[in-house]
TrEMBL record:
It comes from the Eukaryota. SUPFAM superfamilies: Dehydroquinate synthase-like. Gene3D superfamilies: 3.40.50.1970, Dehydroquinate synthase-like - alpha domain. This is Uncharacterized protein eevs. Pfam families: DHQ_synthase (PF01761), DHQS_C (PF24621). CDD domains: EEVS. Residues 139-251 form the 3-dehydroquinate synthase N-terminal domain. The keyword Lyase applies. Residues 253-397 form the 3-dehydroquinate synthase C-terminal domain. GO terms for molecular function: 3-dehydroquinate synthase activity; metal ion binding; nucleotide binding. Its cofactor is NAD(+). The keyword Transferase does not apply. GO terms for biological process: antibiotic biosynthetic process. The gene is eevs.
Amino acid sequence: MGKVSQKNNDTEENTTEFNLVRVKSTWKCKLPQKVNKDTVDCVSPAKIYESITETGTTWTVVSPIIFTYKVTETQGLLDPSNNTLLLGHITDPQQLEDIKISNKPIRRFIVIDQEVFKIYGIKLTKYLEVNNVVYKILALPTTEENKSMEMALNILNEVNNFSLDRRMEPIIAIGGGVCLDIVGLAASLYRRRTPYIRVPTTLLSYIDASVGAKTGVNFANCKNKLGAYIPPAAAFLDLSFIQTVSRRHISNGLAEMLKMALMKHRSLFELLEKHGCMLLDTKFQVDNSLYGHSSLKAASQATRIAITTMLEELAPNLWEDDLNRLVDFGHLISPPLEMKVLPALLHGEAVNIDMSYMVYVSQESGLLTEEEKQRIISCMVGLELPVWHEECTLELIEKSLQDRLKHSGGLVRMPLPVGLGQAEIFNNISYEILHRAYKKWCDELSISSDGNCDP
Ligand SMILES: NC(=O)c1ccc[n+]([C@@H]2O[C@H](COP(=O)([O-])OP(=O)(O)OC[C@H]3O[C@@H](n4cnc5c(N)ncnc54)[C@H](O)[C@@H]3O)[C@@H](O)[C@H]2O)c1
Ligand SMILES: [Zn+2]
């Protein structure tokens, strides 16, 4: 059925479907019925549809692109005997074998957050030296204020000076979400797409920024306005980096974890409710004398659930074509709020303020009981997250939701919790409810509340 005739805009249109078949070192269009699938023909998953109308010819190309990437939790990533950082991204066993037996040194270009370099620089350098790697380490102040195209271009200059081989030498990014986002964008621009590896060193980047495909920098005073959907070749996650993260930044990461809990995992919510303080105290580390073995169990359960729930939402929607996304919870109002008060609020803190307000919207809409609302807000306070902010005005909320309408195909697509650990997307929340929720939110939470928890 290669040739089809269809009416289109009142003009007769003939569309022919072609498969693409490899013939020696070239590809040829072949009608489907002429393709010999059982024998020699190597058929591409791509197709070309040729339509001829009175006004001209159109070739429609359907070219499926598959991204394969690994997210690996490992221990001792900078232990010289662990080769994950250098070879863990390679999927072809033959290529791996070839590299192992070759005596050519491995070359790697590494971009690392300046503060992380201060703590882990000696260990990293030793790791590379012992493994006989030819390397360049670029330590940069990758802060939210510096998350710009300018910094991406600085990185690209250095990458170019290193004469990187884009096929064999993935760029390695080590740092928090800012570093990973900037390096990811730089890599996706260099020679149109150079593989890169993410090594998250904050909790937020461990469970969120490392797991998906998004890269970006801030532009025109908007968060992540320039970016690409290009996943890393691999993300290598080692919880031991988190031990040096400040307590405030642990809370920051817990906000994104709480997002996944509220949207789709009641047990994760209960875990955070029960063990949030312990996770803050132990910084997700194992050998904590105060809490012993239970800290290991809670930490590994929490990160595992957060990562798998995140992957469940991202993998089928890597390019965010489906605009109905539960992972957007906490991200409707927070981007302009975060930019407005920069650097006063961290990303996760702004997200939490957004989630806190939305919990009130849910309760006002009859989707959450008063008791459930209280439990969520108490959990947030227990995680030492801000639940209210004076700059989060009704005006900002309304403007954010209007902007959302513009960029989300005319619907607001508001993810809201409907009970603990379940959520749905809503398009019909009225202004009356938004206003009532805002008033109640301010009345109840504006004299907030530092987290207060005893170990
Ligand atoms: N790509 C995505 O899907 C995605 C998802 C979520 C967030 N993000 C982005 O991530 C960014 C926030 O990431 P973040 O919270 O990791 O912030 P960050 O990168 O600014 O890091 C936070 C602070 O911690 C320091 N730091 C990092 N690792 C450390 C360590 N191991 N020990 C001590 N200090 C350490 C950094 O120097 C920095 O001062 C935002 O820009 C956000 O847009 C991206
Ligand atoms: Zn986020």
